[in-house]
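lol forgot to send this yesterday, sorry. C-alpha cells for the thing we talked abt
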C-alpha cells in the first residue's frame, strides 16, 4: 500500500515495479480506505478467495 499523494510519483512507480518483479508483493494499491476504493475491493476479494479455499 502506498500513500495516495505519492502514487503518481515516478519514484513510487519504480518501487512498485521492483516489489512486483522481485515477487515481494502480489497486490499494490493506493492507501485509500474509503468504501469501494481499490484497496477495499482488493481486500474483500482476497478474503473471499481465502474463505472459498479454506471454508
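and heres what i got for the seq, position by position
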Amino acid at each position: 500500500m502506498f500513500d495516495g499523494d505519492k502514487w503518481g510519483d515516478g519514484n513510487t512507480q519504480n518501487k512498485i515495479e521492483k516489489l512486483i518483479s522481485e515477487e515481494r508483493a502480489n497486490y499494490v494499491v493506493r492507501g485509500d480506505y474509503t468504501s469501494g476504493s481499490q484497496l477495499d475491493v482488493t481486500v474483500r476479494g482476497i478474503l473471499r478467495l481465502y474463505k472459498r479455499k479454506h471454508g
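The chain has a mean pLDDT of 91. anyway ping me if u want another try
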